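Handoff note, outgoing to incoming analyst
You'll be picking up this chain. Sequence as last confirmed:
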Amino acid sequence: MSHLEANAGVEIEAPPARVAAVLADPDAPRRLFGLDVRTGGPVPVRWRGGSRFSVALSVHGEEAVFDVRVGRLTRQRLDFVASGPIVIDATGDLRTAGMGRTWMELSAAVSGRGFAGELAAAVAAGVLRGGTLGRILAAVKRHAERVP
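Most recent structure output, in case you need it:
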């Protein structure tokens, strides 16, 4: 199983606590990225370390479901693993970038099992490198800068 990496960063005109609050909102996957969230139980007030949920996305009419486990979500860091047809192990670092600003860097390691899984992981890593990570960060930025 090989790991392919993708990275992107953005400066956000909001303090790290606000950015973390946006990421911790249980509605964030749907609102920011259009992902269907399934919790298998009551929806928590906020995502935190240890939270588990599933997201479903559709690619060319085929649904892919990923089980997500949040490792850590603080004002400084977001760690999560999304396991499905491929595995995405992601880390988001949030650093103060001046008064009321945050530098957020997002890194994702993508892996798959077997030939088909490794091929799918390579495609996913290419999509992430090709601008998807940047679009994810842009969505977080837009929302964090809008929230009071």
